[in-house]
Amino acid sequence: MFEPIAIDDPDDPRLAAYRFVRERDLVGRQGRFIVEGEVTLRLLFSFSARFAAESVLLAPERWAGLSDLFAQRAGRPPVYLAGRDVMSAVAGFPIHRGVLAVGLRGAEPAPAALIPPAPAPALVVGLVGLTNHDNVGGLFRNAAAFGADAVWLDAETCDPLYRKAIRVSAGAALTMPFARAASGSALLDLAERHALTPLALTPGGDETLDALEPPSRALLLLGTEGPGLPDAVMARARCLRIAMAVGFDSLNVATAGAIALHHLAGRRLAG
Amino acid sequence: MFEPIAIDDPDDPRLAAYRFVRERDLVGRQGRFIVEGEVTLRLLFSFSARFAAESVLLAPERWAGLSDLFAQRAGRPPVYLAGRDVMSAVAGFPIHRGVLAVGLRGAEPAPAALIPPAPAPALVVGLVGLTNHDNVGGLFRNAAAFGADAVWLDAETCDPLYRKAIRVSAGAALTMPFARAASGSALLDLAERHALTPLALTPGGDETLDALEPPSRALLLLGTEGPGLPDAVMARARCLRIAMAVGFDSLNVATAGAIALHHLAGRRLAG
């Protein structure tokens, strides 16, 4: 039987990876990331998760409700139990839900390894310069909802495994494959090499989204709400706009992405 | 020429409505609300705004860039200038942008007064039990983007004129007409009385959104992400679902609303 390990010393070295969660959010964790809360912990242990857990830290009263996660799993990580006061002292802020885990990033895959080879249908989301964790998390959630194969990120786009991005993604950051390329132009090079039609979503697009017959293989490119996609990216893509009311041309980028993914995924989805 | 009024005493009674902004957010303001930042201030003074400003409070260096708002306006409210330290002392938290205003709610209109009478086309969004300001703000933004005529709220749905909701709405809370009814059932009574087809968006819907021919007059009902719309509401509406990938049936409610509005608005929008 799998037994959790009780810890009552906030300085116990086995909790080192949980120390100063917020400060470390800013500087990175050398191959690790933090998961918070039951829903995301369950996703981290689901078959669709892409990452292994290094350890789990629970308030003792959460163990009974979560022990099923460890019953049937080979190679399960240690589970530490510590009171909420100890958890909060280690993490440096109040851990109300009493559920934390450390995930291991592993090696990041190559972008092309994540998508079905041509001529199979493929739908990829490309994020260029998105530095807001809410937007990146929301786009992962939407990419998962509409069955995208992968998310590709340029170098400037922020980390989908940042705590807030994982939370806003409803855990999709743990399951949706993603990889990085250097820039928007590098994403377009990949699209060319792998027979993906590059589509740029922009309020100034020549065509409306609704008029587009979804290509069988597509890369949907999204940029920040203010400056939008770089001109050099738009010049190499079909530029699409979402029809909106006169005098209002502003949607949140994650929302605009959802509308485009809904259109592009179309017949691929469960009716 | 319109002259702003310099104030350097945080206890000046003319600034009373700006005092303790955060604490007052929680208890209400007796017919007033607070607007923050240039974008929303400009919307409050635009022709499409539904509310009057009672006064404006600016850091002195913001005056030059905003004085155009007061040049051509009859009945303009007083503009107070105070340094950021005074503004922050009055408001009780740091006012980085140096732009605040107090708006007047006025009398709330009757729900039916906000929509075109039958048989003209009409698109109304009905929010039931939405207590998250991000979601309500996001839905106002999306309702504006897709040209909805109005938003109707049940009694439990939170205030669209709360500061955070205004900000997330990108100011649409100041321009999109809204009114309250007692409950989801009261919203359905209104729909019946005013020939609006009631549509309920729910993951368990019988029909997919895409298969629906948009009715000329519709009330789109949205509930909270967890519990969803009350059964009594769904029993009286056509229940629609958004087709999603197998194993993932979760979209943010504002995002789901945007997808449905995009479909329902369809031909009404600027191509």
TrEMBL record, chains A, B:
Pfam families to which the protein is assigned, alphabetical: SpoU_methylase (PF00588)
Domain of life from the UniProt record: Bacteria
Keyword Methyltransferase attributed: yes
InterPro entries per record: Alpha/beta_knot_MTases, Ribosomal_eL30-like_sf, rRNA_Methyltransferase, SpoU_MeTrfase, tRNA_m1G_MTases_N
Keyword list, A-Z: Methyltransferase, Transferase
Residue ranges occupied by any tRNA/rRNA methyltransferase SpoU type domain in the UniProt entry: 123-262
Protein name: 23S rRNA (Guanosine-2'-O-)-methyltransferase RlmB
